[in-house]
């Protein structure tokens, strides 16, 4: 937000009312200014969360709608200029680009780019880029002194290993010991929910649902409400909606999980387990 005087000079804040200003109108103007700044902070925080979600899920926009949302909107334009975008076909980027503040589009080779009519645009995930292209984009943002509003090019990413492809259980975090309250706070802040209570009121799962996909994390269990105790993480299972019965989810092999979704779930679990200093394998 910026404010200027009648001569076009930029001011740090709204000017104090002068002796010839109307007190009521001056107060109303200052109140409106303060409210707008407060509302803008809320909008920015909400949009950061939405873009984080869009990056994690691979949400796509048709090019004309993308321009309406991110180019013609003065708030979202600031976000657009700090991120790397891609033209997608069959869930893969066929071209990456950046929106420049002068209204043009730039490729990783710093050549001007024209958006294709009807193209599908999404935020590029670093796991989809070769190391060479990823490094070049990072260098370009550094050269232009662009600070990304959402962690993107520096984002940690994870792939399914050859040994895991035929497995149905993600066991990378099996045995991690962590405080139950810490686990609950971190997972719930990332959109996870606690599972239903079982025998004796014990909850031993968290789940993350996203449309036709779901992942369930098993752990040693705690009370209906998380309490200050140590718990042990077990395996996580990915599920997809059954094509023949959309009311049911079926566990799928890790090799069949969409790469971006797999990477984002592992990243979230890694963040949730980051404070752990102990691993305790359960022989059973």
Count of alpha and pi helical runs: 6
End-to-end Cα distance, whole Å, is 59 Å
Question: What percentage of residues falls in helices of 4 or more residues?
Answer: 25-40%
Could you tell me the number of beta strands? 16
Overall pLDDT level:
92
Please trace the helix and strand order, writing H or E for each element. EEHEHHEEEEEHEEHEEEEEHE
- Based on helices, strands and strand pairing, what is the structural class? alpha+beta
* Global morphology: globular
**How many domains make up the coordinates?**
2
Give the C-alpha Rg: 24 Å
Low-confidence stretches: none
Largest sheet: 8 strands, antiparallel
Strand residue percentage:
15-25%
Write a short abstract of this structure.
This protein has 284 residues and is an alpha+beta fold. The protein has helices spanning 23-57, 63-70, 74-80, 131-143, 180-189, 259-272, and strands at residues 3-4, 10-11, 61-62, 85-89, 92-99, 105-106, 112-113, 120-123, 169-170, 176-179, 193-194, 203-210, 213-222, 230-241, 249-251, 278-279. It is built from six helices and 16 strands.
Structural summary, described in words:
There is one protein chain. This protein is of the alpha+beta class. The chain folds into 2 domains: 22-155, no CATH class; 169-279, TATA-Binding Protein. Helix content is 31%, strand content 25%. Helix 5 packs antiparallel against helix 6 (259-272).
List keywords for this structure.
single chain; 284 residues; alpha+beta; TATA-Binding Protein; six-stranded antiparallel beta sheet; globular
């Amino acid at each position: 937000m910026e404010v200027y005087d009648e001569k076009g000079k930029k001011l740090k804040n709204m000017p104090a009312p002068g002796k010839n200003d109307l007190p009521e109108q001056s107060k109303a103007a200052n109140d409106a200014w303060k409210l707008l700044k407060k509302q803008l902070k809320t909008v920015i925080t909400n949009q950061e969360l939405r873009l984080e979600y869009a990056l994690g899920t691979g949400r796509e926009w048709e090019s004309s709608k993308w321009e309406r949302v991110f180019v013609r909107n003065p708030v979202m334009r600031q976000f657009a200029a700090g991120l790397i975008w891609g033209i997608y076909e069959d869930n893969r980027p066929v071209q990456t680009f950046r929106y420049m503040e002068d209204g043009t589009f730039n490729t990783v080779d710093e050549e001007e780019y024209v958006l294709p009519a009807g193209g599908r645009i999404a935020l590029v995930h670093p796991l989809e880029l070769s190391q060479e292209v990823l490094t070049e984009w990072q260098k370009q943002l550094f050269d232009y002194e662009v600070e990304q509003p959402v962690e993107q090019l520096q984002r940690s990413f994870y792939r399914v290993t050859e040994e895991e492809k035929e497995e149905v259980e993600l066991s990378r975090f099996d045995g991690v010991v962590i405080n139950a309250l810490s686990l609950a706070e971190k997972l719930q802040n990332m959109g996870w929910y606690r599972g239903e209570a079982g025998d004796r009121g014990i909850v031993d799962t968290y789940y993350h649902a996203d449309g036709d996909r779901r992942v369930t994390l098993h752990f040693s269990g705690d009370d209906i409400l998380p309490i200050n105790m140590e718990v042990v993480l077990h395996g996580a299972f990915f599920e997809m909606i059954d094509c023949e019965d959309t009311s049911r989810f079926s566990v799928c092999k890790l090799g069949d999980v969409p790469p971006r979704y797999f990477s984002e779930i592992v990243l979230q679990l890694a963040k949730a387990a980051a404070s752990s200093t102990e691993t305790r394998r359960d022989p059973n």
